Amino acid sequence: MIKKNKRALCVMSGGMDSTLSAYMMQKMGYEIVALHFNYAQRTETKELACFHAICDELKVISRYVLDLDFFAQIGASALTDASIEVPTGGLEEGVPVTYVPFRNGIFLSMAAALAEKEGAEAIAIGVVEEDSSGYPDCRESFIQSMQRTINLGTKDETNIVIKMPLVHLKKSQIVKHALELDIALHLTWSCYKSEDKACGVCDSCRLRLRGFKEAGVKDPIEYQ
Q1: What does the alpha-carbon distance between residue 150 and residue 153 come to, in Å, rounded to a whole number?
Q2: 44-58 vs 16-27: helix crossing angle, rounded to 10
Q3: Which helix (H) or strand (E) holds 206?
């Protein structure tokens, strides 16, 4: 039996993975509290618009948008430092320059504060370990360690579970699952470089396009 009024704080970027994660949480009976971060990323305006459009589709009432401009001061990533070019030559081994230092650790810390305030029993994040760009803060072991830390640093009666329903999926499996749930994939955005039409050549676009190709369907967003 589904417990009524259980809440999940969903970290939602406007991308395909976090969108599917939120849909899955809602399907499991959770009331969604949506959280989006503006962190001085290149496609900040587009991602924010996608976040609100997806929340409208999900009929999410409670939504938060937090501005984290300090990421630009930290730099060290092609997503937040305009002097570093976004690589377009294809997926490479190792951690790429699009990695934003400890981004998910910072996001989850702030999500935990909001989850405790909102009385949410779960935080959902759309990390993907096996078919990602090799980001260390997308690993299951890291997210599990963050869950332990969060529960050590919050009130005794607070017991938050971090849900990562996509962590072991391939992009093609994510596409197929999204289609099964009739997700509005045309509202999602993955491109690291452009806000009008997706570039099609950055790591994120390549992973997305490969996922759609392997799933045997056409990506509904426009590409340059």
Answers
A1: 5
A2: 20
A3: helix 203-215
- Domain of residue 67 covers 7-215
DSSP H helical segments within 59-154, as ranges? 70-74, 103-118, 140-152
Position 220 in a domain? no
Q: How far apart are CA 20 and CA 91, in angstroms?
A: 23
Is 87 strand, coil or helix? Answer: coil
Single-letter amino acid code for the residue at 143:
I
Nearest to 162 by CA among 175, 145, 174: 145
Specify the number of domains making up the chain: 1
Q: Does 109 map to a domain?
A: yes
CATH classification of the domain holding 55: 3.40.50.620
Angle, alpha carbons 54-57-59 (nearest 5°): 110
Q: Is 172 domain-assigned?
A: yes
Q: Give the separation between CA 184 and CA 28, rounded to whole angstroms.
A: 18
Residue showing tokens 């993907």:
128
In this structure, what token pair is assigned to residue 145? 């360690």
Whether 221 maps to a domain, the answer reads no
Q: Token pair for residue 108?
A: 């989850």
pLDDT tens for the chain, 224 residues: list them. Answer: 444 579 999 999 999 999 999 999 999 999 999 999 999 999 999 999 999 999 999 999 999 999 999 999 999 999 999 999 999 998 878 899 999 999 999 999 999 999 999 999 999 999 999 767 789 999 999 999 999 999 999 999 999 999 999 999 999 999 999 999 999 999 999 999 999 999 999 999 999 999 999 999 999 999 99
